[in-house]
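Forgive a beginner's question, but would it be possible to get any protein sequence you like and the tokens describing how it folds?
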Amino acid sequence: MELSVDANVLAAISTRVTTGTTVRGFVFNAMLDEVVDKRGAAFEGDLRNQVMRKRPSDLLSYPASDYFKLLHLCAVSLDDAAGIPESVRVLGYACAAGFFRSPMGRLLLGIVGRGDPARLMANEPTAYATSFSFGKRTYKRTGERSLELTHAEDFLPAPYNVGALQGALDAVGAKARKVTFVPIDRDAARYDITW
């Protein structure tokens, strides 16, 4: 299945999230850092000022509507020949890397160790829940070197989740990894993972 998302879809997500739905600050910052890395420091202030006045604190939670506005702006600023879906995937990957640099992510890696993707992914529902206050996620082992994750009530676009899952697999040193997206409905999907 092709991972399609465009600027209009991204812009509309922020209008669908409910008041009280939140995202941790380190996820905002990971996206901003990715844009700075790819486009230069001047972009951070411009992007951030369109959504919030100052850089978020890593461990605090902020409105999800602001997060999705920033995701839209960051994806558009990174857009090149690869297109918006690839920009969103890159931002998802960067956010996973940001999670594993955070105290919560470092703790999780310390518990699960390196080299065992299934052990890490068994904790994926909890890892997402520490970052995003929305969505329901489940884990199911499907083989010796495969598993599936199901996301429901999830506003994150599929390319974002694919990138985040790829980043998580890289964090534990998984080799020859593959993440396949299978849509269920607008806010639900299955991610089949092999390594």
Remarks:
- The domain at 7-194 is CATH 3.90.1520.10 (H-NOX domain).
- The mean pLDDT is 91.
- The first strand starts at residue 22 and ends at 24.
